[in-house]
Amino acid sequence: MNWKFAITGVATLCLFVGAGTVLSPASVAQDAKTDAKTLKPAASFQSIASERERSVALFQEAGKVIQHPRCVNCHPATDRPLQGANMRPHQPPVFRGDGGMGLPGMQCTTCHSAENTPVVGQADTIKSIPGNPAWHLAPIEMAWVGKSLGQICQQIKDPARNGGKTMDQIVEHMAHDELVGWGWNPGAGREPVPGTQAEFGELISAWVKSGAACPAS
Amino acid sequence: MVTFTLNGQERTFDGDPDTPLLWVIRDFEKLTGTKYGCGVAQCGACTVHLDGMPRRSCVTPIATIEGSDVVTIEGVSGKEADAIKTAWAGLDVPQCGYCQSGQVMSAVALLQMVPKPTDADIDGAMTGNICRCATYHRIRAAIHNAANSMEG
Ligand code: FES
Ligand code: FES
């Protein structure tokens, strides 16, 4: 890189906007990008003295996974799943059906198989059909679309809306469930959720141990 | 080597395990009734029955169907298939015909699962089968006719 040019460029920018910052917009964008792709380890939250604040911060970090389109797309608020990073309605138009597995004659397994399936000779926009042995929609009481992270947090703790799970079972589900794990292995052409499932499981476990406090919004 | 049943006969395929079932059916088995429309599970032209359920053969790698039973438009049979065939001919459902083997395979599967489908059942099952000639109204009517003919 031509440093002289870069430094002059930053100086010019600061002068122009009249701001005191020395961070270039490019480096800020780069940090935000890395941040969106990784999870902070659960242990790094120990420095937060207040247990309640620590708990909220742990859940907010886990929220980077929970609120990712890979997860939310199959927690729709209607009977139709969403699709893609821009969370558009699923094409073809498919609907929930029994057990979230689609309607008779058009079940998830009409197109989705037990594994992500690369497609042959296609445009760059579709590289694979996603798949997993447990492929199905989350039940309607677990709808996340349109909810804030705080609302999703309350929902996850409520046995009436979490499939009757105890908090231990929630930790187990987040850390080991196969379909949850698909989020980290979504197939070619799809952005995975941040971090690893193990790191995510540790965040949820630490959140539960610290009292499972929820963000206000 | 993958071994499967195609329209009642045992077949093997020894090529690339990622080869889509549609390629095997058309290029190797020379059964060209099943059509290629999109290759990405968006149109339904390639629909076959895999172990009795409708399945898009364009997104089905051959390696995943070891031991399975595949039925195509050439081999589909039974009372639902007969009723659909008669109803389709009775209303002259196809226009260009390109989508129709997929439509028929989906319609037969629907009747096998829901013998007397409502309009909503038909919408639900046929939503993934696109017809560029827009024969949808005749498809719907023919499915109702087929269901009525099977009664009693
Ligand atoms: S060719 Fe398989 S769905 Fe279009
Ligand atoms: S009859 Fe022409 S595409 Fe359906």
Question: In a few lines, what is going on in this structure?
Answer:
The complex is a heterodimer of chains A (217) and B (152). Chain A has 217 residues and is mainly alpha-helical.
Q: Can you describe this structure?
A:
The complex is a heterodimer of chains A (217) and B (152). Chain A starts with a helix and ends in an 8-residue tail after the last helix. Residues 1-23 of chain A have low confidence and may be disordered. The radius of gyration of chain A is 21 Å and the shape is globular. With 217 residues, chain A is mostly helical. In chain A, a hairpin with a 2-residue loop joins strand 3 and strand 4 (106-107). Chain A has a domain at 36-90 and 140-209. Chain A has 8 helices and 6 strands; from the N terminus they run ααααββββββαααα. By secondary structure, chain B is an alpha+beta fold. Chain B folds into 2 domains: 2-71, Roll (Ubiquitin-like (UB roll)), CATH 3.10.20.30; 79-151, DNA polymerase, domain 1 (Orthogonal Bundle), CATH 1.10.150.120. In chain B, strand 3 and strand 4 (53-56) form a beta hairpin. The longest helix of chain B is centred in the last third of the chain and has 15 residues, at 136-150. The radius of gyration of chain B is 15 Å and the shape is globular. Chain A binds chain B through residues 91-95, 97, 103-107, 109-111, 113-115, 117-122, 126, 129, and chain B through 18, 20, 23, 39-42, 44, 47, 53-56, 58-61, 64, 106, 109-110, 113-114, 121, 124-128, 130. The complex binds FE2/S2 (inorganic) cluster (2 copies). The site of one FE2/S2 (inorganic) cluster has 11 residues of chain B, from loops.
